[in-house]
């Protein structure tokens, strides 16, 4: 693994390996000195062409906990504002000897294009409607914490599936781990090719929630829809929002996830985020650990391919 | 070299072939008991002691040491584990992945830490473990207990308590369980 562009490029073994080593990285945050020297001397550039708070901060904290240096290239204060092309920005970064580039862009495929221009490891932090792989990893990790093994569990994803890179990444990853995913959305917010996805679809939230082991709410992406796909936000909330009544009918053991930022009063009622079963804060915390694991896998052992099969914990014979 | 390092180093996928058993279960038990007595003698009791096993080979010996000390003194010492993947000096040379989380149950400030590993070889793992420990506080002192000291040190590190001194060639391999210590080769 030289880059992390999409969940589709990961094998099930890769995915499970990331999830297996993540607790070690989560533990670092608990130390009195929450910083280890693993990536000392390496530089990670954060190239965000689209607004983001938690993803950018999360990657920055992750890199710093591993002692890597970070560079923030924010579009509003860089030469991108003067019309510099993506390629020129990439070559500038390359010339400065950067080891990894974390990129978010409104266009799908930008991270993949970058890999052709730079030698650095490229990590996709969200490209258009396409992919957001580290979000899928942290969601899988959070769900495993809540539910244990995901094989056979029923995950219900509600909201704007069509414009969601989170849904595209999560469905693939969750299916790989054996979970069954049901996507609930109005027909206009389902992608046209949804029949090719490894998930069922439904337009009836109440019926689907009855068999849910976990509920994943997606944000209504108002900035992506100028095309009037739903008649009215209030109607959407009534039919597809997690209202206080719907939340009350859920078993208290069913975790509720959201990638953030939440639109309180739209996809989730104003008080619902205060329930104990809402694990949004765990998602944010786990996001740092998962991103540390990804950075470590890409930068910490880059010269050799991972012999994944040799890392099985058994037999416990120490060969020295 | 520990299991983890061996699995990530050439020859990849090689397996251990034993040539001779150098310690059996009874001898290992006796060595453990002796080391427990040495720890007591050196520290004048169990006050302020913490036992920490290195992931993954040192975890089981550390547990046995805690039990041996409990059998003598009647007190159970706090037992921790430390994974040194993040502190190794060969990151980038080969894939060293964390095996299991570090768990230190007590604040190490002003404590005497006994680090436990199965085999002492180059000393690099112990060097990394010393760095890792300091993220958790400033111990009063750190002592090292190993089941087997096989020589070939590359750093100025020595063990305070040794189960067995085993002269080896660099190319040989040593396999340690709590039932048997064997010497042999890695064969592809």
Describe this structure in words.
With 320 residues, chain A is of the alpha/beta class. Chain A has 2 domains: 7-131 and 284-305, Aspartate/ornithine carbamoyltransferase (Rossmann fold); 133-282, Aspartate/ornithine carbamoyltransferase (Rossmann fold, 3-Layer(aba) Sandwich), CATH 3.40.50.1370. Chain A is built from 10 helices and 10 strands. Chain A has helices at residues 12-28, 54-65, 86-95, 110-115, 133-147, 165-176, 205-209, 233-240, 244-249, 280-300, and strands at residues 43-48, 69-74, 100-105, 121-127, 154-158, 180-184, 200-202, 214-217, 256-257, 318-319. The longest helix of chain A is centred in the last third of the chain and has 21 residues, at 280-300. The model of chain A is unreliable at 302-320 (pLDDT under 50). Chain B has a 5-stranded parallel β-sheet. In chain B, strands 1-8-7 form a 3-stranded antiparallel β-sheet. Chain B is an alpha/beta fold and 188 residues long. The two termini of chain B are 17 Å apart. Chain B has a single domain, classed as 3-Layer(aba) Sandwich (Rossmann fold), CATH 3.40.50.2020. In chain B, helix 2 packs across helix 3 (59-73). The longest helix of chain B has 19 residues, at 25-43. Chain B is 27% helix and 29% strand. The A-B interface holds A 17, 21, 23-28, 31-39, 66, 296-297, 299-304, 306-307, 310-311, 313, 316-320 and B 1-3, 6-8, 12-13, 16, 56-57, 60, 83, 85-87, 91-103, 118-119, 121, 131-132, 134-137, 148, 150, 173-177, 186.
């Amino acid at each position: 693994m030289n880059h992390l562009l999409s969940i589709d490029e990961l094998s099930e073994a890769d995915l499970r390996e990331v999830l297996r080593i993540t607790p070690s990285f989560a533990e670092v945050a608990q130390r009195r000195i929450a910083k280890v020297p693993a990536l000392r001397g390496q530089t990670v550039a954060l190239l965000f062409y689209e607004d983001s708070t938690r993803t950018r901060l999360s990657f920055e904290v992750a890199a710093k906990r591993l002692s890597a240096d970070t560079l923030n290239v924010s579009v509003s204060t860089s030469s991108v504002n003067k019309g510099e092309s993506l390629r020129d920005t990439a070559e500038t970064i390359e010339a400065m000897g950067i080891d990894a580039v974390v990129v978010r862009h409104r266009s799908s495929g930008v991270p993949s294009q970058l890999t052709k221009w730079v030698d650095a490891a490229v990590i996709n932090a969200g490209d258009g409607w396409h992919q957001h792989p580290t979000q899928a990893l942290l969601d899988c990790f959070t769900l495993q914490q809540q539910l244990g093994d995901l094989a056979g569990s029923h995950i219900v994803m509600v909201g704007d599936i069509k414009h969601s890179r989170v849904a595209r990444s999560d469905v693939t990853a969750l299916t790989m781990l054996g979970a069954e995913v049901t996507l609930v959305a109005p027909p206009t917010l389902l992608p046209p090719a949804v029949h090719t996805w490894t998930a069922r679809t439904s337009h009836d939230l109440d019926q689907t929630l009855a068999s849910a082991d976990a509920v994943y709410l997606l944000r209504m992406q108002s900035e992506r829809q100028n095309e009037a796909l739903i008649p009215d936000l209030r109607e959407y909330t009534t039919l597809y929002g997690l209202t206080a009544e719907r939340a009350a009918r859920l078993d208290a053991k069913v975790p509720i996830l959201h990638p953030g930022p939440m639109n309180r009063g739209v996809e989730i009622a104003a008080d619902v985020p205060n329930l104990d079963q809402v694990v949004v804060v765990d998602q944010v915390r786990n996001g740092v650990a998962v991103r540390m694991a990804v950075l470590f896998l890409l930068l910490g052992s880059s010269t050799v391919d991972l012999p994944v099969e040799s890392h099985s914990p058994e037999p416990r014979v120490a060969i020295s | 070299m520990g299991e983890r390092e061996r699995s990530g180093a050439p020859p990849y996928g090689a397996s251990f072939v034993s040539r001779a058993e150098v310690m059996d279960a009874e001898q290992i038990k006796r060595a453990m008991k002796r080391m427990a007595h040495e720890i007591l003698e050196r520290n004048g009791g169990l006050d302020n002691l913490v036992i920490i096993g290195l992931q993954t080979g040192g975890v089981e010996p550390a547990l046995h040491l805690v039990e041996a000390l409990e059998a003598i003194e009647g007190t159970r010492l706090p037992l921790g584990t430390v994974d040194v993947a993040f502190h190794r000096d060969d990151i980038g040379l080969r894939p060293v992945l964390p095996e299991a989380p570090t768990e230190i149950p007590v604040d190490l400030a002003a404590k005497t830490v006994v680090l436990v590993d199965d085999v002492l070889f180059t000393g690099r793992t112990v060097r990394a473990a010393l760095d890792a420990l300091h993220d958790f506080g400033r111990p009063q002192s750190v002592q090292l207990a190993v089941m087997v000291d096989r020589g070939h040190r590359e750093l100025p590190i020595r063990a305070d308590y040794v189960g067995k001194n085993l002269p080896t060639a660099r190319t040989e391999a040593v396999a340690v369980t709590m039932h048997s210590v064997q010497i042999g080769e890695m064969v592809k």
